[in-house]
Amino acid sequence: MNEYNSKLHQTADTVDSKSVIQKLTIQSEPNAKLTISNANNVIVEQKEHLKFNLIDDMGKGYQILIKDWDKPANFDAIWTNLSKLTYKDRKINKVIMHFSGIGDNWSTTLANNLYYGFSSFNGPKNIKFEWFYEDGTKVNFERSTAYLAVASLNTYLQKNHWGHERTTVILGGKALALYGSSVSIHNGNELYSGKANSIDADGLSRATSGPGEPDQNTIKNFFPNQKDITEPNIPYRWDTANSSDRYYGAGLIALDGSDLTIKVDVKTDDAPIGVTKNTGQWFNMGTVIPETPGIIPPTIHYHHTNVALGLEINLIS
Questions:
Q1: Which Pfam families match (predicted)?
Q2: How many CA atoms lie within 13 A of 44 on its CB side?
Q3: Domains in the chain, CATH or no CATH each
Q4: Rounded distance, CA 126 to CA 131, Å?
C-alpha cells in the first residue's frame, strides 16, 4: 500500500483517476439543440462539419465573431434536449454558458453536441456555467463529487507556433492536476503544460498523428534547446476523440456549488521576441476521467479474527 501511494505521489493538487468519486456524467449528445441568445457586439453564423482537432467530424454548430474589436462582446450558449447528462443519476437537460471577452478578431465556434465543447481564437473567453435539472432547478454540486476533465491542453513551443493552451478556474471549483499528465497546476488555479506536449523533439506531430517521418519545416522552426523544452515520450494521437491516452493533455476541475466561472486563453507572455504566437485552442470537457497507464491498485487481503469483544479486521498490506 505504501508503495502504491508513493507511486501516485498525490498532493492536495494532484489526483489519479481511481482516487476520485465522480457523480457527474457527460456523454455524446448528437440530438442536443444549441441556441445562441443575448448576443451583444457579435455576428452569429451556422457551421457544419466542425473539426476542432482538425481530424474528427464533430457535426454542426455556430461560429461567433466580434463586430467592433474595441468593445466587449458577450453571448449566451444554451444547450437543451440533453438526454445523457446526469448528476447523482438525476437528469440534467439544460446547460448555459455565458461568454464574454474582447480582442482583435475575437471569436469562438461551438458544437451543437455539448460533448465536443468549443474552439476559441484571438483573446480570452470568460465563461460562466449554469446547469439545470428537468424541473428547472439549478444543479448545486457537492464538493468532491463532480469533476470536469479538460482534455485538450496543447502546448507548442516553436518559432512559428508558440503558446500554452490554458484554462483558469475563477469561481465555483478547484483546479487539479491529473497524475501522469503533461498538464500541471500553475499559480494555484491555472491548468496548462509548461513544456511542449504535442510535437516531439524529433519533429513528429504526436498529439494527432501516428508514427511517421519528421516534418522538416517544423524542425527548421525549432530552438537550439528544443529537447529541453519538450516533454519526452509523448503518446501518439493523444488528442483524438477516442484515444485511451487523453490523460496526457488533461487537467481536472473539481466543481463546488451551482456556478462555475473559468477563463480560456493561450498563455504567450513567455514567448521569445520574434516568434509567431498561437491564438487558438479546443476546449474539450468530459467527465470520464482519463486513466493513467501503470497505476494498479494493490490487492487488499483481510484477515478476520473472532475476539471476545467483537470482530477485529486487520488490514494486511
A1: GbpC
A2: 16
A3: 2-290 (2.60.530.10)
A4: 17
